[in-house]
Specification:
Structural class: alpha+beta
Helix content: 10-25%
Distance between the termini: 46 Å
CATH class of the largest domain: Mainly Beta
Largest sheet: 5 strands, mixed
Strand order of the largest sheet: 1-22-21-20-19
CATH topology of the largest domain: Neuraminidase
Shape: elongated
CATH superfamily of the largest domain: TolB, C-terminal domain
Length: about 500
């Protein structure tokens, strides 16, 4: 845990009785403010991934050491006594982690703070610091499953397309043409509202099994000029292999033929794995030339914390597949330079709007999340979660951890959040700027009101029609909802003026 949290210590050799690094740190120039400290995510030093057992061990050790050396002055509950309160976020003698560690090591005779250089090792000081930092009372994010059903009063629903085989994503190329992916591996064309019989020829071979197959679909923001179409899919290591990993490509459509394919992201061969779950994957673009895409952790929980693995992450590339120079791990040896965030379980909703990258991801039994994805941030899976194991047993005792992000909102019980879209256009102008989120489990479409980076509320627009896999706004202003079962696309229009 501390390897991820206290980046300033990553270059220090601290263990056992070797304490010279902390002393050297104490004699270095004044500590930087938290805002100016080098973020841990940009450290060039390799990081060992966080595991739940490691967190439990370090916090238990920090609690033991605190009780032995600190409680007499600062109180068993850290509320203060002879010494100051350590959980009220009022720090007068030291504020940054660097300053606090130095104070523990060297003390301060003016206020009666003893030094612990000869009592605690560097690693033990960090364990105590971890323990202190994680004792602040936590405000849990309230679950958002008590949404009201309002769709019957606000929208008309009609079947726009039928007869699809497990559709996964849809995008409009223009007013008359649309493309749809089917998980089995087919890319289908829709012309003037009619599904063409023959699928597009020459699309990539996919590993179609479990949750894997041909997944998301997106067009370049400059599609009208360059014709680029982006696909994510579960890619087999080799033909007939039972190992696969999420891959991102782009290509063009010439008539009914996929052409000019370019590989933008492909995992290292040694990181392909068996398993039928959690491939992700969604695609979105910002207004600065980047493409974002998500990769699930493939059912391997601890790998979500390992930046030397591609799974359990949101990635960012330039649209041509090159690595942005300011990616948080671009300079770290052995890390995947495309990683933008980590600690994500199975992100299957991703949309950029107004400078904010919104994401939804599946929790286990509870703890589906609505997140704002930030560069280099750790979203905690599996160390923190609002969910439980599928058996109902405890997954983790922690919903919070220092250095790990909280969701903006969460769903417990799980709704199986899938697909994310932004409402825009005149047809639903009263909802412009709201988010649309699919729910596989409850066969719902949810309308989420946001204000900047703040979650306000949500309502259920659609329920019981099928498993909502994706949502897209049409060029006509209608909302199009992709149901992987029963293999339909629904078209939603206002029943009256929406408010």
């Amino acid at each position: 845990m501390r390897n991820l949290k206290w980046g300033v210590f990553l270059t220090l050799t601290i263990s056992g009785a070797i304490f010279g690094a902390v002393v050297a740190l104490a004699q270095s120039p004044a500590s930087q403010s938290p805002a100016s400290q080098t973020p841990v995510s940009q450290s060039p030093v390799s990081q060992s991934p966080v595991t739940l057992q490691k967190v439990k061990t370090e916090l238990a050790n920090g609690e033991r050491l605190y009780a032995q050396h600190c409680a007499d002055c600062h109180g068993a509950d850290l509320q203060g006594g002879l010494g100051s309160n350590l959980v009220d976020d009022i720090w007068t003698l030291a504020q940054t982690n660097t300053e606090i560690a130095r104070l523990i090591a060297l003390g301060d005779a003016d206020v009666g703070m003893p030094e612990f250089t000869d009592v605690l090792s560097g690693g033990e000081i960090l364990d105590v610091l971890d323990y202190i930092r994680n004792q602040k009372p936590k405000q849990k994010i309230k679950a958002a499953t008590d949404a009201d059903m309002v769709g019957d009063h606000l929208v008309n629903t009609a079947v726009w397309l039928d007869g699809l085989e497990t559709p996964w994503s849809m995008v409009f190329l223009d007013k008359s043409h649309a493309l749809i992916t089917e998980k089995t591996g087919r890319l289908r064309r829709v012309v003037d509202g009619t599904l063409r019989d023959k699928p597009v020829v020459g699309t990539p071979a996919v590993w179609n099994g479990g949750q894997g197959g041909l997944l998301d679909l997106a067009i370049d923001p400059d599609y009208a000029d360059n014709g680029w179409i982006y696909l994510t899919f579960s890619h087999p290591l080799k033909p007939g292999s039972d190992k696969a990993m999420t891959k991102l490509v782009r290509g063009k459509l010439t008539g009914n033929v996929w052409s000019d394919e370019q590989v933008l992201f492909e995992a290292k061969p040694e990181h392909y794995m068996k398993g039928r779950v959690h491939f992700g994957s969604r695609i979105t673009f910002d207004d600065e030339g980047h493409v974002f895409f998500s990769v699930g952790e493939r059912g391997q929980k601890d790998m979500a914390q390992d930046v030397m693995r591609p799974n359990g992450k949101v990635h960012r590339l330039m649209r041509d597949g090159s690595i942005p120079k300011d990616n948080p791990f671009a300079q770290q040896a052995d890390a995947y330079p495309s990683i933008y965030s980590y600690g994500n379980r199975n992100p299957q909703g991703l949309i950029w709007t107004s400078g904010v990258l919104w994401e939804t991801e599946h929790g286990p039994k509870g703890g589906d999340e609505l997140n704002i994805i930030k560069s280099g941030a750790n979203y905690g899976w599996p160390v923190i979660s609002y969910g439980r194991n599928y058996s109902g047993t405890e997954l983790t005792p922690y919903t919070h951890m220092k250095g790990m992000e909280q969701p903006i909102s969460q769903w417990t019980p799980s709704i199986a959040a899938n697909g994310l879209e932004l409402v825009s256009g005149e047809m639903f102008k009263e909802w412009n700027g709201y988010l649309l989120a699919g729910a596989l489990k409850y066969k719902e479409l949810r309308l989420i009101k946001i204000d900047g980076k703040k979650y306000i509320s949500e309502q259920i627009l659609l329920k019981g029609r099928g498993r909502v896999r994706d949502i897209t706004m049409g060029p006509d202003g209608a909302i199009y909802v992709i149901l992987n079962k029963p293999g339909q696309v629904l078209r939603l229009t206002p029943k009256r003026d929406v408010k």
